[in-house]
Amino acid sequence: MKPLFEFLDITVHAGGSEFLHKVNLIIPDAKLTVIAGASGSGKSTLLRCCNRLEVPSAGSLRYLGDEVSSLDPLMHRRRVAMVFQHPVAFPGSVLENLQAACSGLSREEAERLCDRVALNAELLDREADTLSGGEAQRMVIARALATEPTVLLADEPTSALDADATSRLEGLALSLVADGMAVVWVTHDNDQIWRLAQHLIVLKAGKVLFCGPAQDPKAAAAIDDSWFNNEH
């Protein structure tokens, strides 16, 4: 089976700083991959490379064997969806937010999306900017899923949520993977790493400390080492 993403000597420079340095790793398909490391280690930069929000300065990045730089950015982002730390609601209702991602989306299809992300379908007519933090994050994930992606990238999606909303979102991520989707999740929450990770990538100062199965005995040592990190 081809890797979902393959990073070959990827380096990212921006504004005179180096955020990733000759990164070599794979992200497998149909698993929950956690990218971990201290603040400033390059986690978000690595994630953003996956859907072309960040363009590598050097190296080769492949998606299912194809060079990412050769892919149409908009089409690629429909296949490789991304949600962020702070959910962004578009003006209008929840239904209109979902339809912004897929203009032909019917109410019945929107209700199915709500069910998939454990969002009460009665909220479809609610103004999106009135949702709670957890509801808004689930709406944003539903909006991302409306394009039927093969991958969901999540950049610290629970960092602003309470414990209950965090638990619900973690459960959603695991259920998506159980249904065959790949999820790539960035976190610096040590406990969350071990609740979620099937495959683990640990970064420190833009370099890879560990990449492999989360149950590998070397993984825990890499996590411990990653906290002693010089931010950039």
List keywords for this structure.
Rossmann fold, six-stranded mixed β-sheet, four-stranded antiparallel β-sheet, 8 helices, ATP-binding, transport, AAA+_ATPase, ABC_transporter-like_ATP-bd, nucleotide-binding
Summarize the structure.
With 232 residues, the chain is of the alpha/beta class. It has one domain (5-226): P-loop containing nucleotide triphosphate hydrolases (Rossmann fold, 3-Layer(aba) Sandwich), CATH 3.40.50.300.
Report what the structure shows.
The protein is α/β, with parallel strands linked by helices and 232 residues long. It has one domain: 3-Layer(aba) Sandwich (Rossmann fold), CATH 3.40.50.300. It is 34% helix and 27% strand. It is built from 8 helices and 10 strands. The protein has helices spanning 43-50, 73-79, 94-101, 107-116, 133-145, 163-178, 190-196, 217-226, and strands at 5-14, 17-27, 32-36, 58-63, 66-67, 80-83, 151-155, 182-187, 199-204, 207-213. The strands form 2 sheets. A 6-stranded mixed beta sheet has the order 6-7-8-3-9-10, sandwiched between helices. A 4-stranded antiparallel beta sheet has the order 2-1-4-5, covered by helices on one side. A hairpin with a 2-residue loop joins strand 9 and strand 10 (207-213). The longest helix is centred in the last third of the chain and has 16 residues, at 163-178. The radius of gyration is 17 Å and the shape is globular. InterPro entries: AAA+_ATPase (IPR003593), ABC_transporter-like_ATP-bd (IPR003439), ABC_transporter-like_CS (IPR017871), P-loop_NTPase (IPR027417). Keywords: ATP-binding, Nucleotide-binding, Transport. Pfam families: ABC_tran. GO terms for molecular function: ATP binding; ATP hydrolysis activity. Residues 5-230 form the ABC transporter domain.
